[in-house]
């Protein structure tokens, strides 16, 4: 078949923004300065077209006003007598090429007939005035990712290149047997390691024993299916296993039920019991609608809608292919929230990243990408995934620490609105509750969406081990938001016509997990892989079974609705394939035509994994009590600080600096529902304390979102970290206006490997940190009455490269979702009028352990160790209830939390947002015998809110909140400056322009 | 949110029963994604909206008969792969082109926002027939385009546009400043040649232009998000019934959509609804007038 090559570029005289952006990156990142640079879009059409048809397709693709194009090649012009070098970057065989897919569609539209074959996209860069060695460096460090892309560098004039990255093979379909019976421990471990199975010896032995009892060896597919289902990623073994915990004094206790049952779920159960006892909800309308068993948590919102929320991490793939890995993160979590119950309507996304320092200029271990490039790719991936899916974002944060250079943390989450009920089967009969999946025996197993390829094979097991040189290329998937968007437009229509009875996402583990999990609803499933649609031939049955190729959902469709379901799919250009049916024989049976592939008992599949008792021993890096004299030394060091310079320096630190440049590339307004946007203030560059969004048009109820994340506190005590995270997330949504009785939270644990081994000698300590974190989380959730409705853990965030091990600090993200009845009552951090009074609500202590200030001063003259912020949960909760009463009485005019960077940062945000002045006296907070001005401004004590009120309301506010640690700070002025004095002596005097200059500079150009 | 009050404020002269009889069509699918807010824009004003998957419309162009307003919504049709709106515009051109041209020639109204505008431009619906040789009931050739922003990449930020009081555009009639979020990566409006530019200027076919804080037309970022010459933010056809623009007035339906809503309310400036609604109120007004003329 003839392959046609199309080259397209901007018309002369019109700009080439991709070339311009590339040129800027080359200059600032790599110090490379080509004399000139142009880019071209290149498409290879392997579609069975004749030359005349290819000409027509070219004419349809080239913009007649803005572009020129050629069949074959455009001319590479000379500049100053010099011809350019041409760098071509395209995908490797089998890698998702969404643009190519659209080009093939466009070609079919153009010639007016269905086409067989593929189109492939690539980019051509033409460089003038750069040596080929320099271009190779540009490719390696910026333009080319060898894991997913192929490249070619050649001087012009070029030869016509019509090669395409065709994938697939004609290898015969084969099911192999894995000889497990009779093998010794060493052999079993080798089978697991070499097969990328991530199964422990105990697990391999359990599988061996199971098949010995059956009197046969397992097939490759059975072993793979068990490896996926039993992976840490899918089975959360560390959270399920009993743990023996020993504290530094040698006192031992055992967490019998494991961390999940013992703390996470227990917290939610305790909160549910509190609510029942207090009569918080009507009997038939409990707040908690569906928690822990579906793809995402569901809570009650209005009479018409529930709210659905899930936050995921996609760390390992993002380390290898930041763009594709991160995009898969966002479109993947979209499927989780979408696929909850019978389907929810996606509302808004959240993102948060932990990266190595983007300013890093030292050596990096081989195989590691520069943090700057990872950051760039991750942002672009989530931007493209979210924007193209038509979902705005609400929350976004970035944190930086050298320990995230090995594996970045990429959090992506999605809130959805789930109609309380949807039409019954076939659109007839009474409506049914949407959060329940009423699957029945005999319902068909239908796969919908994208096709299956080798992408994402071993994703679940790969993310359950550390990153090293042998990390598999196929573990990376690339999302295709448009295929997914078309799929869920179709599924929403099908939901509203009652055409299916259940669904779940094909994420980690692919069909083996999605069908394997859904099979539990009826008690079995039977599928035939020979009918599964493949991207290209040559996949072994086990690969089809576990592939994590994206944009796929598995549906349960009742036979009576099957024809209507398939017909609608076809009209919407969405591929839907009946793979089998749900049964009740207790087995997961997989065939490939006549060949048996897999036959596993559901009980063994889901319950057979051995859970040995894990060992934890807390070994705090510092004595738990702060060394005598430490506080005194810290006080002296603090007293010597120039506060103006210190605050400016803090504002420029990557963790605190403006990131609006990046964040504005994410759509935050599509759907037209935003109320308090992620970036606020006169110049729209200050992060909102919490965001508020309407949920449906023409209604005034809103969802309030915020989070808490404090990885550095984990260095001192993970219990304190967990309390601080819950506290800050809750405090944030309350500041913005959330109801006090409708708050829920999500927990995302990202940990370094906490299992002791040769590579992880300190595994017991890391596991003890996890136990303490869970204890703190439980205590805070129960004290605040905040249930955990969903969560996720990612437990192997280590990189082992070139003999260097880099492990992340233990990191807990608590995402909080609140509700309000009238969005017009929402508040922001922005002071509103000159003359308003400024207060700090809450107690400030000398708690600088793990603070941004401590990190900034680390090095030459470090700050002596002080305590990590502790959180007196009962006192805080009483304070918040009192605050909310005043807020709802209309006495609070603006409210903001003190978090990272302490009071100083909160005040800076207020000045930056309103460009009004704050004239403050710190005498109520600090003074002789108490805190210094520096400690008052920079301590990160939790539980504190900075608020403003009118002068008229001040007495009442003082009366009502006085018992909760209310401190008068001063008033709002029109000076545009932040000033603070202590004992009549000026401590801080900074204009908003001074603050903004440093704030905007911190991450500029990175 | 009291939509009856909003209607009474914005289009008090229109009879709700008359409004309810108008057919407003919002085609969806293929990666378009502003269907909810675009539908709400018309619904909040009392009109009924028919959302229809583009595939259904392509299969039965007859569904356009009797439609008063056709709204081309924002989004990423086919991922904006190749170029924004290109694949979608081609699909419409090949399968719906003449029906669309006839719809306009017969007096139909149309509005396009963002991706909708990009599609209308690449389809030839905007600026539409220019020359005497252009048949009214056939799509005009593409004479304008919307290309990559001078600063590469997508950006979400609010912009201000000034309306040309002499423009025939029915959608901007009586409006001075429109504020809306701008959310695109390819929004720079380029024209095939200077002659066309001169003609469009002479006929006031650029109804909206980006202006800075002082109200002056701007070619400079960030007031002008994409570098469009002359600050051009949109185009209308000769009749003024067909209008498209890059920013998103449909994302300004509620007062609280505006980034400074709280500060404005504190300053006593609280309209009780989003000012983007005025554009859609104008469209409904013109559609009712058109209907009265040719029932």
Low confidence ranges of chain B = none
Strand content of chain B: 15-25%
The H-and-E topology of chain B, N to C, reads as: HHEHEHEHEHEEEEHEEEHH
What's the average pLDDT of chain B?
94
User: In this structure, how is the largest beta sheet of chain A organized?
Assistant: 7 strands, mixed
Oligomer: heterodimer
Number of strands of chain A: 41
Range of helix content of chain A: 25-40%
Shape descriptor of chain B reads globular
Helical content of chain B stands at 25-40%
CATH class of chain B: Alpha Beta
CATH topology of the domain at 629-643 and 829-1006 in chain A: Phosphoribosyl-aminoimidazole Synthetase, Chain A, domain 2
The CATH topology annotation of chain B reads as: Rossmann fold
Q: Characterize the overall form of chain A.
A: globular
Q: Kindly, what is the distance between the CA atoms of the first and last residues of chain A, rounded to a whole number of angstroms?
A: 46 Å
Largest interface, chains and sizes? A-B, 69 and 71 residues
The proportion of strand residues of chain A reads: 15-25%
Protein name (chain A): Phosphoribosylformylglycinamidine synthase subunit PurL
Subunit structure (chain A): Monomer. Part of the FGAM synthase complex composed of 1 PurL, 1 PurQ and 2 PurS subunits.
Pathway (chain A): Purine metabolism; IMP biosynthesis via de novo pathway; 5-amino-1-(5-phospho-D-ribosyl)imidazole from N(2)-formyl-N(1)-(5-phospho-D-ribosyl)glycinamide: step 1/2
Enzyme class (chain A): ligase
Question: What's a concise summary of this model?
Answer:
Chain B: This is Phosphoribosylformylglycinamidine synthase. Chain A is α+β, with helices and mostly antiparallel strands and 1006 residues long.
Record the SSE blueprint.
The complex is a heterodimer of chains A (1006) and B (295).
Chain A: E1 4-10, H1 17-30, E2 36-46, H2 51-61, E3 67-71, E4 85-91, H3 98-111, E5 118-128, H4 132-143, E6 149-155, H5 185-194, H6 201-214, H7 220-229, H8 232-235, H9 237-240, E7 243-246, E8 252-255, H10 258-278, E9 288-290, E10 297-300, E11 305-313, H11 315-320, H12 322-338, E12 345-355, H13 371-388, E13 393-400, E14 409-419, E15 421-422, E16 432-433, E17 444-449, H14 459-462, H15 481-496, E18 502-505, H16 510-522, E19 525-528, H17 541-546, E20 552-557, H18 559-571, E21 576-582, E22 587-592, E23 595-601, H19 602-607, E24 614-617, H20 630-639, H21 643-651, H22 660-663, E25 674-676, E26 679-680, E27 686-687, E28 691-694, E29 702-709, H23 718-736, E30 744-750, H24 763-784, E31 788-794, E32 798-801, E33 804-807, E34 811-820, E35 837-841, H25 852-857, H26 873-888, E36 894-897, H27 902-914, E37 917-921, H28 933-938, E38 945-949, H29 954-961, E39 966-973, E40 977-982, E41 985-991, H30 992-1001
Parallel strand pairs in A: 7-24, 12-13, 19-22, 30-31, 37-40
Antiparallel strand pairs in A: 1-2, 1-3, 2-5, 4-5, 4-6, 7-8, 9-10, 10-11, 11-14, 12-14, 15-16, 17-20, 17-21, 18-20, 19-21, 22-23, 25-28, 26-27, 28-29, 29-34, 30-34, 32-33, 35-38, 35-39, 36-38, 37-39, 40-41
Chain B: H1 3-10, H2 16-21, E1 23-28, H3 35-43, E2 48-53, H4 54-59, E3 69-72, H5 86-105, E4 109-113, H6 115-123, E5 144-148, E6 155-163, E7 177-184, E8 186-191, H7 194-202, E9 208-211, E10 234-236, E11 242-245, H8 261-266, H9 277-293
Parallel strand pairs in B: 1-2, 1-3, 3-4, 4-11
Antiparallel strand pairs in B: 5-8, 6-7, 6-9, 10-11
Helix pairs in contact in B: 5-6
